[in-house]
Design brief:
By secondary structure, this protein is α+β, with helices and mostly antiparallel strands. The chain has one domain. It is about 15% helix and about 35% strand. It is built from one helix and five strands; from the N terminus they run E-E-E-H-E-E. It has a five-stranded mixed sheet with strand order 3-2-1-4-5, with helices on one face. Strand 2 and strand 3 form a beta hairpin. The protein starts with a strand and ends in an 11-residue tail after the last strand.
C-alpha cells in the first residue's frame, strides 16, 4: 500500500509555510513559520502517516521525512 506524499513549502504570496498533499492545490495545514511547521508535521500528516518533502525558501529540496518511521520504504539512514 502506497503512503501519501506531501510537500512543505513557503507560499510566496502569503509568506506562510504550506503543507500540501501531492496532486492537490489546497493546503492540508498552514504554518506561520518553518520552525512551527517542522514541529507540527507529525500531527499534520495524521495517524495514517506519509512522506513529507521539505523545501527551502528557494524551493530546492532540503530533506524528506516519513511518518511514522516504520512506513519508510527505504532502509537507508536519513
Amino acid at each position: 500500500m502506497a503512503i501519501d506524499k506531501y510537500t512543505l513549502h513557503k507560499d510566496a504570496e502569503t509568506e506562510k509555510w504550506r503543507l500540501e498533499r501531492e496532486g492537490s492545490d489546497r493546503a492540508k495545514r498552514v504554518f506561520e513559520n518553518k520552525g512551527d511547521a517542522l514541529k507540527g508535521l507529525r500531527a499534520a500528516v495524521g495517524p495514517a502517516g506519509g512522506s513529507v518533502r521539505i523545501r527551502k525558501v528557494d524551493n530546492t529540496i532540503q530533506e524528506e521525512r516519513t511518518y511514522p518511521r516504520s512506513k519508510d520504504p527505504n532502509s537507508t539512514p536519513g
